[in-house]
Automatic annotation (TrEMBL):
Cofactor: pyridoxal 5'-phosphate
Organism of origin: Paenibacillus silvestris
Residue ranges annotated for the Tryptophan synthase beta chain-like PALP domain, each copy included: 75-381
Keyword hit for Lyase: yes
GO molecular function, one term: L-serine ammonia-lyase activity
Family: Belongs to the threonine synthase family.
Domain of life: Bacteria
Alphabetical UniProt keywords: Lyase, Pyridoxal phosphate
Entry-annotated residues carrying N6-(pyridoxal phosphate)lysine: 113
Chain segments annotated as coiled-coil in the UniProt record: none
InterPro entries in the record: Ser/Thr_Dehydratase (IPR050147), Thr_synthase-like (IPR004450), TrpB-like_PALP (IPR001926), TrpB-like_PALP_sf (IPR036052)
Record protein name field: Threonine synthase
């Protein structure tokens, strides 16, 4: 059995090809982002959707679609295979009959980042990498630290100064070396890291600078399409920071369409905070290159508080434009309401995750999403990562009682009348 159908890297800019055995971040010639390519013609002949039905329900069920060449190098904690939950509350409130939530808050470290780091760390292990670096607002750092520790890889995480203490503590718990990262703009970070690639040769795990991380996000397309009976949703809504999730999912849907496993493609929707939305600004201007925009300190959605996307956010914008989708910005107040609504779904979501539902509410009001559309909102991380927002969203009960049957009876009578 062929473990992987990956063939080579190709550069987005100069189109140069490189062998996968090379531990590359960006293109050695021009510094462009590298994309991993696959032999889809051979896959179409040798693979069939039913092949995957009996496999363990994790993202590694789809290993043929990833660049890892040998399964013995896989570093996994059961990531992926998360439930696609039909809405029981928000759909009714919005008049949508086919609304689903892809709940990645249930991942091993509590966020969708586990998909990317399971693959990226496995791929690095296969290439003999022994140490690596990433920066993070919290979730990525925790995921990298956990998978690196299990792989025996020396992990260093530059943690944004805006990250909340709980996320910082979790990164330390998993054993990574950490330093607090101060900056004026995300462009400072990307410039620093791209120079480090050129001059230090240090292998990095930053989204897109690392060419493997977003490949794992293709599993969204595979899992969702399989759950819907090998049909793509009409609309997929994804919170966007650097944008590896939405780009990877779009790539996955395109692969399935090329293989003939699904007949249509979803409209991809990128969601960012109103306070800092460079992708949204570029989309509203009809541009395919995003510039620095906004103030990342003014949003509660820490995980997507990016004021400048990597290399102009071209991949994210391509996914939006090429799919016929759109980009939407949401306010703190809209996010908190969405956190509350998701609570009625039985989902505890961090603000960045709830932004997808907040954007959907806006889209329904604007008529860009129709009542009979099949819609998937991605829940990218657990609300337990930002408990202060959960406390803000839901007031603590002021009811009290002293333990006795009479007091309990009076309380229940008052509550249930």
């Amino acid at each position: 059995m062929t473990w992987s159908y990956a063939t080579h890297y190709s550069c987005d800019n100069c189109m140069e090809h490189y062998e996968l055995i090379q531990p590359l971040n960006t293109c050695p010639i021009c510094g462009g982002l590298l994309e991993i390519q696959y032999d889809l013609d051979r896959m179409k002949l040798e693979l069939h959707p039913k092949l995957f039905d009996s496999r363990e329900p994790s993202m590694w069920r789809w290993h043929e679609f990833y660049p890892l060449q040998n399964g013995t190098n896989m570093v996994s904690m059961g990531e992926g295979g998360t439930p696609l939950l039909p809405s029981v509350y928000a759909g009714r409130m919005l008049g949508l009959s086919n609304l689903y939530f892809k709940n990645d808050a249930m991942m091993p470290t509590g966020s969708f980042k586990d998909r990317g780091f399971s693959l990226a760390v496995s791929f690095a292990k296969e290439m003999g990498i022994t140490r690596g670096l990433t920066y993070s607002s919290g979730n990525a750092g925790a995921s990298f630290a956990a998978y690196a520790r299990r792989a025996g890889l020396d992990a260093t995480v530059l943690v944004e100064y805006l990250a909340n203490p709980i996320k910082k503590g979790i990164i330390g718990l998993y054993g990574a070396r950490t330093a607090t990262l101060h900056f004026e703009s995300m462009t400072d970070i990307t410039a620093m890291l791209e120079q480090a690639v050129k001059e230090l040769g240090l292998y990095q795990f930053v989204n897109f600078i690392n060419p493997a991380r977003h490949e794992a996000m293709k599993s969204y397309a595979y899992e969702i399409s399989q759950a819907l009976g090998w049909k793509a949703p009409d609309v997929m809504i994804h919170p966007v920071g650097t944008g590896g999730g939405i780009w990877g999912a779009w790539k996955g849907f395109c692969e399935l369409n090329q293989l003939g496993w699904i007949e249509s493609l979803p409209r991809m929707v990128a969601v960012q905070p109103k306070a800092t939305g460079p992708i949204v600004q570029a989309f509203n201007q009809g541009a395919r290159h995003a510039e620095k925009h906004g103030d990342s300190t003014q949003t509660i959605a820490q995980s997507i508080a990016a004021d400048a996307p990597i290399q102009g956010g071209r991949r994210v914008l391509n996914a939006v434009y090429d799919s016929g989708g759109f980009a939407e910005a949401v306010t703190n107040e809209e996010i908190i309401e969405a956190v509350q609504w998701l609570g009625n779904e039985g989902i505890c979501a961090e603000p960045a995750s709830a932004a997808s539902l907040a954007a959907l509410k806006r889209a329904v009001s604007a008529g860009t999403v129709q009542p009979d559309d099949c819609v998937v909102c991605v829940i990218t991380g657990s609300g337990l990562k930002q408990p202060s927002i959960i406390q803000q969203a839901v007031a603590e009960s002021q009811l009290e009682l002293t333990a006795s049957f009479d007091n309990l009876n009076k309380l229940l009578t008052a509550l249930w009348k």
